[in-house]
Design brief:
The structure holds two protein chains of two kinds. Chain A is of the alpha+beta class. In chain A, 51% of the residues lie in helices and 21% in strands. In chain A, the strands form four sheets. Chain A has a five-stranded antiparallel sheet with strand order 4-3-7-6-5. In chain A, a hairpin with a 7-residue loop joins strand 11 and strand 12. The longest helix of chain A is centred in the N-terminal third of the chain and has 50 residues. By secondary structure, chain B is an alpha/beta fold. Helix content of chain B is 38%, strand content 21%. In chain B, the strands form three sheets. A five-stranded parallel sheet of chain B has the order 2-1-3-4-5, with helices on both faces. Chain B has a five-stranded antiparallel sheet with strand order 9-8-7-6-12, covered by helices on one side. In chain B, strand 3, helix 3 and strand 4 form a beta-alpha-beta unit. The two termini of chain B are 20 Å apart. Classes of the chains: A alpha+beta, B alpha/beta. At the A-B interface, helix 6, helix 7 and helix 8 of A face helix 4, strand 5 and helix 5 of B.
Chain lengths: 454, 234
């Protein structure tokens, strides 16, 4: 993709050319029309002046009497010419200005008719001629037909037109260049924040910067905020991976050390027992860390809403199958509008663990209730409340803290009761939610988690 | 009971086969999905243990195929993946239970026995028919409260008959499910063992716990009874 700058400038240039072209042509046509009309009007006026100055002479021909008021007609080569002729084409009179020119006025024009025409003289100059046929009443009842003609040189007219065109083009060219320059400057100014983001991203890449500055136009604020959120969540994820890897490596060292020390032990039975113990321990460490690392956690970008209902439905049949010997009753009550704002796999994991725990410890009944709640506080956030209850023995108050804390250090984790719950608590924490352990009216444990909803 | 083990990791497969044989099961083993599918189709299997990550044909695909072809024996999945999404996918494909690797053999054995009981319509680990009681965990058999000493093969016959109490089981089926595949089938070994079992369960010969239906097979004639709730702990 080419630069926005170039795209915009090229398209504006094209538009300018088209619009200015059309305008120039239109203005030119208009001007030519106007000036030709005024030329004809001046020819009309000259013709009338010649007619007005003419009188019939003794032979019945009509000729101008005395000097004409228009001095240019008297001056040879002035560019204004006049002629009076008969209808048959003989010339009766020519203005002195026509001396030395080969100007020819056209043949007969019927009385009352007018004819405008362009003619070219031998010297190459162009003239515009007007010929008008007139029936002149010489005596009462007797009239003769004459043709009065005037012509004017088009040099001035053409020069004027040329000048006008030159000026028109000059102005438009000037305006177009001015516009383009202004646009280019404007664009630079408008795109400056984008260039700044680009530069800042480069700085983030080479590590001299942590996040994008937010002093940006409103249109780009969202983009920058989202980019920042993405960066932050990537950083958190990286951090978590790094921690997990470190934890994993470190926590595996203890059982490895125990086993190495054991290899010196003589008693094979004792050795076997210790190796078994340590393998179990390593297994639970690996399991725990794997689950922790797999959880995606809250990231603002790229997460769609996840419907809770279908996931519960998907989990129910397999659990009923696994716990078939218990003849379970799993009641699901999830609001259709309950949607989790986060990763589907995380929700699946949390619900899977909660339901599995409930099924494992219940006597025969598990109840799940999911609701989306809109908070009335200023934030207007929507939260998701998921309650899982069972009718088992429940979790004693003094065990609750211990179970939740169990996940804190992987090498202390013991598989069995509580590990699943500790895992859920950790994922909930990633989403800045809460987990409460209480007593259910059914008799067993009641686990409530609160998560971001959408 | 005849168990099919489908696992591509040779060390694990061999150890499983050895331990299951030690727990008096008749075991078939397969190293990939296609072999597993073949064995599941061709042999009279009572239960299959299937690893999900198999070469040639994935465990899930294999289970799906077996199920669509109407094989109803219980299937236990072994998987290294313990995300719920993976478990659910496995169970949805038609498996009945899952076990996450690594596992203790005792845990596997307990799941296998529970699945076998469930398939026979029993929900408790102690099977009770009339006054005969068989504990699948400890393999202790009592008649009217008195412990009875059984050989491993006698126990296997009794367990099979009790799991399917009330059903007629042909001699051929009993042979196929309890013996190694290449065993001489037309021998009278089964008759000999059933005869010994009868003597041990019913020394007086008054109750006839195992009926012989001529030309059809054997049937455990004692009425099924669930064990007392005191024993109920799976």
């Amino acid at each position: 993709m080419t630069s926005l700058n170039r795209r915009l400038l090229t398209s504006v240039l094209l538009l300018l050319l088209i619009f200015f072209g059309i305008t120039v042509v239109a203005l030119d046509l208009l001007f030519r029309d106007l000036s030709e009309r005024s030329l004809r009007e001046s020819l009309d006026a000259q013709l009338i002046a010649v007619i007005a100055a003419s009188e019939p002479d003794a032979r019945g021909n009509v000729v101008p009497v005395g000097t004409l008021r228009e001095a240019r007609l008297m001056q040879p080569g002035s560019g204004l010419y006049a002629e009076i002729g008969t209808r048959r084409g003989e010339t009766l009179w020519r203005s002195p200005s026509a001396l030395g020119t080969d100007i020819e006025f056209g043949s007969a024009v019927a009385p009352g008719a007018r004819r405008y025409e362009r003619r070219e003289l031998v010297d190459g100059s162009q003239v515009m001629a007007l010929s008008s046929g007139i029936a002149w009443e010489i005596e009462a009842g007797r009239s003769r037909d004459f043709v009065f003609s005037v012509a004017t040189d088009l040099r001035t007219y053409n020069a004027q037109l040329q000048r006008y065109r030159g000026q028109l083009l000059g102005w438009f060219l000037g305006i177009a260049i001015l516009l383009l320059v202004a646009l280019a400057v404007l664009l630079r100014w408008v795109l400056r924040p984008v260039r700044r983001i680009e530069a800042e991203i480069r700085e983030i890449e080479n590590g001299s910067r942590e996040s994008l500055g937010l002093a940006l136009p409103r249109e780009l604020m969202g983009l920058a905020a989202n980019l920042n959120a993405l960066l932050a969540s990537e950083r958190r994820r990286l951090e978590r991976y790094r921690n997990t890897l470190g934890n994993l490596a470190h926590s595996l060292k203890t059982p490895l050390a125990v086993m190495r020390a054991t290899s010196a032990t003589a008693d094979p039975a004792a050795r076997q027992r210790i190796v078994d113990e340590q393998v179990d321990r390593m297994d639970s460490i690996v399991q725990h860390q794997l689950k922790r690392a797999a959880a995606t956690g809250a990231s603002v970008v790229g997460q769609s809403a996840v419907d809770v209902q279908p996931i519960l439905a998907e989990l129910r049949a397999p659990l009923l199958k696994v716990y078939a010997s218990k003849d379970l009753l799993i009641e699901l009550d999830a609001a259709a509008d309950a949607r989790f704002a986060g990763d589907r796999g995380d929700l699946f994991e949390m619900l899977g663990n909660l339901l599995d725990n409930a099924c494992k410890w219940c006597r025969g009944r598990v109840r799940v209730r999911v609701r989306a709640r809109r908070f009335v506080d200023a934030s207007g956030r929507t939260r998701l409340s998921i309650v899982v209850e069972d009718d088992g023995a429940g979790i004693a108050a003094h065990d609750r803290q211990r179970i939740l804390a169990r996940g804190a250090r992987a090498d202390e984790a013991v598989p069995g009761q509580g590990l699943g719950l500790a895992m859920v608590a950790e994922v909930v924490q990633l989403y800045e939610g809460t987990l409460d352990i209480g007593e259910s009216p059914l008799g067993g444990a009641r686990i409530e988690i609160d998560l971001p909803a959408r | 009971m005849r168990i099919l083990v489908v696992e591509d990791e040779q060390a694990l497969r061999e150890s499983l086969v050895a331990q299951l044989k030690g727990a008096s099961f008749n075991v078939d083993a397969a190293g990939d999905g296609e072999e597993g599918l073949y064995a599941g189709r061709e042999y009279p299997i009572d239960l299959a243990i299937v690893d999900l990550g198999l070469p040639k044909l994935s465990g899930i695909e294999m289970i799906r195929k077996l199920r669509t072809e109407g094989r109803a024996f219980p299937i236990l999945i072994l998987t290294a993946r313990d995300r719920w999404q993976d478990k659910v996918e496995g169970l949805q494909s038609g498996a009945d239970d899952y076990l996450v690797k690594p596992f203790h053999f005792q845990e596997l054995l307990a799941r296998v026995q529970a699945l076998l009981r469930r398939a026979g319509g029993w929900s408790q680990p102690v099977l009770q028919c009339g006054d005969v009681s068989l504990d699948t965990r400890s393999q202790i058999v009592t008649v009217a409260g008195q412990a009875v000493e059984l050989t491993s093969f006698e126990y296997r016959i009794l367990e099979f008959l009790m799991l399917r109490a009330g059903e007629v089981i042909s001699k051929a089926e009993l042979t196929e499910r309890l013996y190694e595949q290449d065993f001489e089938r037309d021998s009278n070994v089964i008759e000999v063992f059933v005869g010994r079992l009868r003597k041990k369960l019913d020394p007086d010969g008054t109750r006839q716990p195992i009926e012989t239906l001529r030309g059809r097979g054997y049937r455990l004639a004692l009425a099924r009874g669930e064990t007392s709730p005191a024993d109920a702990r799976a």
